[in-house]
Write a structure and sequence with these properties.
Blueprint (H helix, E strand, L loop, with lengths): L25 H4 L1 E3 L2 H11 L6 E4 L2 H11 L3 E6 L6 H4 L2 E5 L1 H11 L3 E2 L9 E2 L3 E4 L4 E12 L4 E7 L6 H7 L5 E4 L8 H10 L6 H17 L2 E12 L4 E3 L3 E5 L7 H4 L9 H8 L3 E4 L4 E5 L2 H13 L6 E4 L6 H12 L6 E8 L4 H15 L5 E7 L2 H10 L4 E3 L3 H13 L1
Parallel strand pairs: 15-17, 17-18, 18-19
Antiparallel strand pairs: 1-13, 2-7, 3-4, 3-7, 5-6, 8-9, 8-11, 9-10, 11-12, 11-13, 14-16
Bound molecules: guanosine-5'-diphosphate and manganese (II) ion.
Guanosine-5'-diphosphate (GDP) binds next to β3, α4, β4, β8 and β11.
């Protein structure tokens, strides 16, 4: 099973999809992440209760924020696009301004490693300083698009907190779900049903109002995922979103200009960021066979065939329908910067794009950056003969392939050699 690409989702909903590769569909990963403090800002604006808090980007700002919040205990939370911060040392309750400043100094400028970040971690450039709460119960609430059911689904669990992934794996029945009728919208009775199942008493009304507000926010802001984990019942019996995770649907970002401003490039994987800047559709994966393909569908098929023949793709890369030699060269440099790549499979169908141009791009990139791993090339379509001739004349170590199966087999063999 490939690693879940919905980075930062606390709870990876593998079982909900119809195909192993559902995670890799472009629509699925074209999601922009928000920071917790940004998500909480949206919550606060739509009536979902959150603790009082402020963002700080320096020790001085942290101290000033704590002063404004008052009291002498605060929660310091590292703002990174990943969950698991609690266990990774990114969430601390501190007492006194000295301790607060020390904790801020320790976190700011560091890289936080959690089970969702990979060993290199993510840079901590901002902190959320919050008032501490007395926690009575930790619940889980999530909302996302259930692609199989073609509607929104609300999920809730009485076992919220830091181990929701384990709960979901061990005891799926502990996750309650309610699907939202797209015409009618989320209904109050559905919220009450969940509230009672969670064992809420005096909070049923507030819980219902909160879920309805979340559903409204989801629709208004074109979200693809919301998670509150934990949603707490405080010592005073209040409901409060202690954590907040929001993913936006990139396909709708054009009409969410204000949210687009919130993008934090520092949190993006450097290669994925470079790809976005060059208009390439690129996602890092765990395998060692790099793929360069035109068209998302062909890229999916290519990855499937690599797996079918016993290999693992190192990336998904769609250079697009109208790829130029320059774009191909950029794409090539991108996949070559990934040190785990042991073979490259170029699979291009020249419909709009001409195969000779693709060949030129490959040759240009290989000359510029040098390539030490075997390159398997399968070209088909417009000007295929010229393309193949260019590659053969280039004197580069290129293995030509005929057809998809041949290409995949040769790439798998080359990576294993
Ligand atoms: P995550 O680990 O990245 O999901 O970060 P969370 O925001 O969920 O925080 C992790 C844990 O820190 C929570 O499950 C809480 O148990 C704890 N925590 C966070 N804020 C507070 C707070 O205000 N008071 C107390 N007592 N615990 C908190
Ligand atoms: Mn959390």
């Amino acid at each position: 099973m490939p690693r879940c690409q919905r980075k930062g989702a606390e709870f990876c909903h593998d079982g909900r999809f119809d195909s192993e590769y559902a995670h890799f569909r472009p629509v699925e990963w074209k999601q922009m992440n928000l920071h917790e403090y940004q998500a909480k800002q949206l919550f606060a604006g739509s009536g979902v209760p959150v603790p009082r808090g402020e963002v700080a980007r320096s020790q001085a700002e942290a101290r000033a924020a704590a002063g404004r919040l008052g009291g002498d205990r605060w929660v310091v939370k590292a703002q990174v696009h990943a969950g698991g911060r609690g266990k990774g040392g990114g969430v601390a309750v501190v007492e006194g301004l000295e301790a607060l400043e020390a904790e801020a100094g320790r976190l700011l400028g560091s890289r936080l490693v959690t089970h969702q970040t990979g060993p290199e971690g993510l840079p901590v450039n901002a902190l959320l300083i919050e008032e501490p709460l007395e926690i009575e119960r930790e619940l889980y609430v999530g909302m996302l698009v259930d692609r199989a059911a073609e509607r929104l689904v609300v999920m809730a669990s009485a076992s919220g907190g830091m181990d929701i992934e384990e709960v979901a794996a061990r005891d799926p029945a502990a996750i309650l779900t309610e699907h939202v009728d797209p015409a009618a919208g989320l209904q109050p009775y559905q919220c009450r049903k969940l509230a009672f199942a969670l064992g809420l008493g005096p909070q049923v009304r507030a819980f219902t109002a909160m879920l309805l507000a979340l559903a409204r926010l989801f629709q208004e802001k074109d979200l693809s995922l919301v998670e509150i984990n934990p949603l707490v019942v405080t010592g005073g019996g209040e409901l409060m979103a202690l954590d907040a995770k929001i993913n936006l649907d990139d396909n709708a970002l054009y009409r969410q200009k204000a949210l687009m401003e919130w993008r934090d490039p520092d949190q993006e994987e450097p290669r994925e960021r470079a790809a976005r800047e060059h208009g390439l559709n690129y996602v890092t994966l765990d395998g060692d066979i790099a793929c360069m393909v035109n068209g998302a569908g062909l890229a999916m098929a290519t990855m499937d065939l690599i797996k079918l023949h016993g290999g693992e793709p190192a990336n998904f890369l769609d250079v697009g329908g109208g790829a130029t030699a320059e774009r191909v060269a950029e794409a090539f440099k991108l996949i070559l910067s990934d040190t785990k790549v042991r073979a490259i499979l170029v699979n291009i169908f020249g419909g709009i794009v001409r195969c000779d141009l693709i060949a030129e791009g490959v040759i240009q990139a290989v000359r510029e950056v040098g390539v030490e791993v075997p390159v398997v090339v399968r070209l088909e379509g417009t000007n295929v003969e010229q393309g193949r001739a260019l590659l053969e004349a280039s004197g580069l170590n290129v293995i030509t392939a005929e057809g998809l199966t041949d290409a995949a087999q040769k790439a798998v063999a080359a990576a294993a050699a």
